[in-house]
Amino acid sequence: MEKQNKRKLVFLFGAGISKSAGLPLGNELTEKLLNTDKYYIYGKDYKWDENPPMGTNYSTKEHDAIKFIYDYLKNNGEPNPNYERIYYLAELAALYSIKMDSENKDLQKEFPLRPELYPFFKTLPVSDKPIYEFYSSVCNYIQQFICKELNIAFDMEKASSDLSVIIDSCKDNFFDEIIIFTLNHDILLESLFGYNKIAYNDGFSFNCEDKFYHWDYSQFKDTSKVKLIKLHGSIYWYKNSKNKLINEINGHDSTSLEFAWPMSYYPIFLTGTDNKYFNYTHSHFLEMLNYLYETLYNTEVLFISGYGFCDHGINNLIFNAQINSDLSVFNVAKSIPNTVILIEDEEYNKTRKYIEDFKIVELKELYLRNRNQ
After folding, report:
1. Which residues pair with 301 in a beta bridge?
2. How far apart are alpha carbons 367 and 232 in whole angstroms?
3. What is the DSSP pairing of strand 8-13 with strand 301-305?
4. CA 167, CA 184: separation in Å to the nearest integer?
5. Which residue has the higher pLDDT, 342 or 57?
6. Are 24 and 146 in contact (CB under 8 A)?
7. Residues 262-272 pLDDT 10s
8. What domains does the chain contain, in order, with CATH numbers?
9. Residue 318 near residue 296 (C-beta atoms within 8 A)
């Protein structure tokens, strides 16, 4: 009954939708990560400054380790390793080192899961810190770098024009519910909604005790028209002293957005390639993934844009929903990867375009044409 009576529009967005707003793509982030060494350690955090205070401790060893992992991947069959692959190996080095015994040379016995990585573990650069501590700091370095690069000001007028199909969908009475899943860590969509005065529910509710917004899965059961679910976390999500997930974005009435920037603890977002699977077991990410699963099986049309189909867990959810439900999927892009199988109608394939050129009139026509097929 829900699918027949309610016009529910579901989006899934990746980094590609943020490109026109000035945010870097993965390859651009990787290049800058490899070629920038003006970072220094300040307490637990990494600062970026061309002229740091005298006597600061530069993070050259972390940067050297990043370049070492990049070279290792490139010399072992990956022509263009990105920062997520680098993070993945750094995290593996940190996790596997817990079981490492300096007297034990039999890595095959210690690490039977990924035999192709034995050579990597045998050639880890020597550090004056324990391996776990050092490669954890490499992971933190990468995440802080990503935070810095994604924390930019947007040209909201241009962004609103480029992503007008999103804004118009949220404001148009044609749709009863808009559910937006995004894999992006940046706050472009939140800024876009604030600029255009669109109220939205992101799963966080105000806590009177500490005056922060806390993660509350039950929020998605309310009747708000626009819901925003950040499946891979955000550069503004943190854990408080009680290990509760909080959102540092204030102004959830969406009339204005004020951003706080704490530097005393690390943001909560998923980085890496294969290791995203492990982090999906964390309660908030698991709840969001479950919400995606339920949504895919209770809607008929899913629009995807800017997504490179590199998250195998999410890919499996989409493809299984296509096979086992009435879901139709459309990738709003000029082309889709050859490795991806999407069932789309032939008429749409003839007029494929970027999201910046995709208008709400076309979206409505496509939605109606594929609803209740």
Report:
1. 328
2. 27
3. parallel
4. 18
5. 342
6. no
7. 434 678 899 88
8. 2-20+155-370 (3.40.50), 26-150 (no CATH)
9. yes
